[in-house]
Amino acid sequence: MISKIKNLKTYNFNLPQELIAQKPVSPPDKCRLLVLERRSKKIIDDKFLNLTDYLQQGDVLVFNNSKVIPARLIGRKITGGKVEILLLRQIKVNIWECLVGNLQIKKQIGTKLKFSQNLHGKIINRIKDTAQIKFNLSSQKLMAQIFKLGQMPTPPYIKRLAKQNEYQTFFAQKLGSVAAPTAGLHFTPRIFKKLKQKGVQIEFVTLHVGLGTFQPIKVEDITQHKIHEEYFEIDKQTAQRLNQAKKENRRIIAVGTTSVRVLETCSNSKSQISDLRSQKGFTKIYIYPSYKFKFVDAMITNFHLPKSSLLLLVSAFARTNFIKKAYHHAIRKKYRFYSFGDVMLIK
Hints:
By secondary structure, this protein is an alpha+beta fold. The chain contains seven helices and 19 strands.
């Protein structure tokens, strides 16, 4: 018998289709804000433009500066059949691991694909559900064609073609994500200006978001789920500044679950006061209820899919019953959900 906290059914909920946001509000900082106070169990409805009302001088906001690749490419086989691929991970300068829309294609090593007059590819290998495609271009020339031809890899619940600037944070710098770190989409230069006026410190880490972010958990016992692997990095200077803030008892507020994963991955809990180690690599950190947070004091995050690892992460942070109560409240109040939806501050 699986306990309630470990049972996947505990993390399911019904969401009316009309609450799934199909596009961001304009400008994106005009979305709604739901504030959850963990100690008092209070839920507050507000506007995101009022975010600084809940922050204080010395707070540190940590953002993920990963940049989204327009990773969905439409092409054709030499025989004429239409093919859609999704770039997942660069293996070499001209070789990418991809999902290929046509299942039969995956079995056809050697199949040639044409995406434009300038861009061609060939399937050279197959690993489980993915294919390796070798392109005729490499490095900057390849990336230029991808940005020219590619579509933004929005999740399947978004039924419209998103513009590149809609699915990209304005502060994105390091190319590598195939899904947006969506909590950062709400932030604008106007909000950054308000943060600085308040005396809030802004820091950046990197985690390249993978497709696994949107994959639902399929095992009944959540402890048996295998999390996806994602590349991350945090440089020495950033780690030092965050450690100093922590020693001064200033709040570390992660913007997005991706930033949470970087900070918790890099936190050294062996010391009396948790500190960060500068590092880069791949993380498989899996955060679910019963996890003890080492570095993050508060978080800003979107509303997440049922039965997802992201919902488990916020449930671990704010307690499962409180998150369920907050989600029911958000549905009743008609908040907009998922990637282009509204935002929560959990403090």
